[in-house]
Design a protein that fits this description.
This protein is an alpha/beta fold. The chain has a domain at about 95-235. The chain is about 15% helix and about 25% strand. Strands 1-2-3-4-5-6-7-8-9-11-10 form an eleven-stranded mixed sheet, sandwiched between helices. The longest helix is centred in the last third of the chain and has 18 residues, at about 200-220.
Length: about 250
Amino acid sequence: MPAMEIDAQGMHYTPLNQMIRRAVSEGADEIILRNIMGQRFIGDGLMGTVCITVEGVPGGDLGMLMQGPTIIVHGNADHAPGNTMDDGLIVIHGSSGDATAHSMRGGRVYVRDDIGYRGGIHMKQYLDKRPVLIIGGDAHAFLGEYMAGGLIIMLRLGTEDLTPFAEMGIASGIHGGEIFIRGGIEDWALGFGSVCSPADPPQMETIRPYILDFCRHFGLEAGPVLSSPFTRIAPVSTRPFADKYTWE
């Protein structure tokens, strides 16, 4: 089936998403969205294997609750791409806003450049369903806040001297999952309930396939990235706030 193209210039997000859903229900394998400018909820709740290419800047909650499709964005993205996503892939050839991968529970989100605040907040996992967020650039404060599972990798490709990461509250309240940051972090940046250490060779082997896949999508050379030192951040315990409650 040939790719379906939709010119979304000046179109409200409701009829646009209705058109996308109709195309998927009729068996479309590929959908190309032209002139996207802020339309929200693209790909939300979609199932299957359709590939949606977005030309422009999609609005909030891109791919929310998505189960399987691929979304490729040629531009930046607004807040919360991958919100509560269950499966699939979102590839953003630019930056994304706050709460990227919010409550994500499966699939992968790759952002070539930077993300905003609270990336990966409350990511979670169950058995072998493990969500992955990879950030090519930097993140703002509270990355991985309240993580309950999953994997975040931050490559900091625009920081070639690898100065320590210095945004407050990283992994604050984390009680599951892990975060890998290329280079080190400032001691004061580590959030409550988390602990960090240099990533060892076995740990690097576990994230190697994800980094290779990320670099393949963006045409990047993986060798220099994989040869760099990484810091691993993990929970101190599964109940970091246990002493904040009164038990009868």
